[in-house]
Design brief:
By secondary structure, this protein is mainly alpha-helical. 29% of the residues lie in helices and 3% in strands. The radius of gyration is 21 Å and the shape is globular.
Amino acid sequence: MIKLILKTGLLIIASLNFVSCSDDVIQPLEKDEAVNLRFPAYFPEMTFDQDENPITKNGVELGRKLFYEGRLSRNNTISCGFCHIQEHAFTHHGHTVSHGIDDRIGIRNAPAIQNMAFLKRYMWDGVIHNLNQQPIIPITDANEMDSSMPEVITKLSKEDVYKKLFKQAYGDESITGERVLKALSQFIATLISADSKYDRFKQGKVNLSSEESQGMALFQQKCASCHSGELFTDESFRNTGMYYNAQFKDAGRHRVTLDQNDWMKFRVPSLRNVEYTAPYMHDGRFYTLEAVLNFYSDSVEDHPNLDTQLKQNNHIGIPMNAQEKKFIIAFLKTLSDKNFISNPKFAE
């Protein structure tokens, strides 16, 4: 199989000829083909290893069906798509922290699923380094899907539709945990968002308004030290001066490393599609972009390991007045990609 990655000024997911995948009807593809992911030349290099997990049309189709499959959960009610809703850039809109099986409450706000093929770490605490392994966390978490891979395999193996889909994707009907995870990650890798007004501006197709241009300049001055690059995240872990939420007992990166220096450090999220992904922060404590900027200007707490970017010139936080916040939000809204949140190729 020849692997080809095309980088152009346009976002085009190469000819994904998806088929109907209801439990009653499946129309098999005649043959499997490699999927050529296209993304802008100014994007970072892909981190997704296509030698380890080649992205194919049938693999993506299988992954899409699994993404919306309730059988991945203990009681067959919770799918990946339950907490990652497309029209909200694959976040769990309306919940501060995500609600899972039996309406159990988790401890974190579900992050957006977008451009994950370019990232090096996943989850708010960076515990996962390989996209092929990421889905095992929600599948086995007691507050999310509360299942296990043997249980998932047993249930899927009883369904003829999955026997056919796995055969189309992998050459035989064998359903294994590795194949489930790799199919999911193939689909997730195709979720590329790169068709916002900002992208069209970068490509010389449109101009930004005066407010948006001033907002971009302010953003670069006040925000881009953390939200850097074309994904608007440097993927670092930072203590941004938020109070410790005793209800959830979540100290961020510290949960992984047990290093006190990592207390309340969370991964810097991408700001692409941020207009659609409220509520904000790891525990969904803010419901508007205005509230987020008000926090950074007025409410940052001086923790012992507060990020140095928030402790400049004897000032805690980021100095911003009301007009500057208005301009920054105008720029942030240029990162909204309407085609991404409505693309039928990503839908159930």
